Structure prediction request, 241 residues.
Amino acid sequence: MLMRFFRGLVDICWPKNCLICKKAIGDASVDNVVCLECWSKVKRNSPPFCHFCGRHLEKKNLSKGLCPACIRKQPYFDRAFSPCQYDGVIKELIHAFKYKGKDYLGTTLSRPMVEFIHEYSIPMELIDCIIPVPLHKTRLREREFNQAYILSKCIATQFNKKILHNKLLRLRYTRPQVELLPRQRLENVRESFHARKQSSLKSKNILLVDDVLTTGQTASWAAYALKRAGANIVFVLTIAN
Ligand SMILES: [Zn+2]
Ligand SMILES: [Zn+2]
Prediction:
C-alpha cells in the first residue's frame, strides 16, 4: 500500500514523461500523465452502436440494430456504453492502471466516459445509483484496489450519484477473461455474482461500471444478479470495448 502511494507520488510530482511515448511532457498534457499527441490517438467508438453491447455496428448489421454476438445471446443488461476501443493507447493506460498500481489513472481514464455521457445524452437522471463490478476478495487483495470502484467514484462525483458498495459480490475466483479462449470466456463468469440486501436494489435503475467490456459476459452476469435482486434497469459503462 505504502509503495503504491509513493509510486503514485513520484509519478505525479516528478519530471513528467508521457506514460505512453516516454517523451517529456510539456505544459500541455492530460492530467500530467499523457501527452496530447498520444491522447489524440485514443480510438473513440463511433455510432451506429449495437443496441445492447454498444459496440460499433458494421453496415451489414445495421437493419437489426444488433451485433452478431448480441443476436446469438442477448445480454442481461439493458444497454452498455463504451467511449473507446480497447486498443493502443487506452489499452496501455488501462494495463498500467490495473496491473502497475497506478490508481490515479482513474481520473484520466474516466474522462472519456464522462464525455461520452454528455455527447450521447445518456439519461443519467434515470440512474439511482452506481455499482462498480466487484473483484473477488482474493483478487482485491492481490491488486489492493478495485479499478471499477475508482472509476465509479469519478463518475459519481461528476453526476452527483451515490455508489452502492458491497451490495454485489463476486463469489468465484475467475480467471481474467482476456486470458481465455472465446468459448471458455462464456462459461468462466457464469453466475459468479450474488447481490445481497435485496431491498436496497428493488426497482432501482443502476449504472454498472467496469474498466473493459470484453465479451460482455462479466457485465451480463453481474446484471443478472442485480435483476434477480429486483433491479429495474441496468446500464453498463466501461472505458473501452
Ligand atoms: Zn506521449
Ligand atoms: Zn452487441
Notes: Residues 31 and 207 are 25 Å apart (CA to CA). Residues 18, 20-21, 23, 34-35, 37-38 surround zinc ion (ligand 1) (CB under 6 Å).
